[in-house]
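pasting Class I SAM-dependent methyltransferase for the record, 397 residues
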Amino acid sequence: MSEASIDHPIRELDPFAFFVGHASRIKPLGGPNRGPDPKYGFHTPYFEYRPGPVVFTIRFHDLKVSFGELGIHVNGFVADSGRHAVLVGSSRADMPELMREGTEITVRINAVRGVTYALFGFFADGTDAHASGMTITAQELGAAENTSVPAEAFERTRFGNETIGQVSALVDSGAPNFAHPISQPLTQSQLDEAGIGGAEGASDRWSEAFILKVLERYGVLQLGARGLMLGGSLQLAEAIAARGCQMVIGGEDSLPDLPANISVWPLNFAELPDDLRGFDFLFSMGTACRLETVDNARWFINSAIRSLRPGGIAVHLVDWLATSDERGFATADRLPLRRSELTRIALTLISHNHEVAQLNFGGEEPDDQPLVTPVEVNTPDGPKTVEITPFGLIARA
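structre below
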């Protein structure tokens, strides 16, 4: 169920092959010659990739640095077009922080057929960086020569009017708000605000209402938008289709008497097919937590987002182990996730150049704290009661 288990080739790129012999600002890398650009860090050759997501990973070896910010541009170029290369993606990294944290840098783009791409690294304000070497890899996550995936499936969605945007902190400490949702749990105040009843049966009612509210707020619940349900109720799919969306229900072999704008796609949630592409939004209810392990849950969320067009919205409802961050244990049919695991999933999505709506784990007032349900789990020390609640994770491709 890992990325490596699917045909997603990884190719290594020469960081200094575009400007042969030019010295890099990262000493003593590059070549012996002083180039015309004093900000130059590296520049890979231009290559064409499979249509679809491509993740570039940059790693420095034995990095020593006290100052400098690395800017990274991904440029796209169409040969024989008569046009210059254009910027299609970017990122930046504080080099001293990179040295301390020991983390790699990733940049994600969506490749288009017929376009070649290269990475350019630069230091606008200089640096004193030294490294024994650096590697750049490109992992192609797109479909391999799959004619069932049209090129337009990788074009940016034309729906969406709300930007998740960059935030100064991943976690928000305010009270969860139903009218303006971010990544957040069920609370009593949201039930009251939305007018969707009391605590009895609240988890499913709130989860469906939350999905609808998120899709509405982020502008994808519109006529002509294409949505994918990876676990949820037929009633929810029908409610979305009634707004004029084209809905695909994943995981079902067939369903009787469906409206014309609802179809089914037989699939195994543990092995999402590579041609499941071109959606403007997707959502799941509890699916990630029914895949037996935390690694599988993480894989599902990270893989599902590849089904979206760039800019598409994903909403995943998961079971959160709300009152403890101890290692969770599975119930009969699901594995609640800890706060640290939700945070890690969010950081992984961000590292692949996706946006994640801020995480909110509840406010201070009693009605703003998670509305939990006690469930019994089996542990090595015997049965134990834990408290779980649905948590909605929002991301943009």
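Residues 1-6 have pLDDT under 50 and may be disordered.
The longest strand covers residues 382-396.
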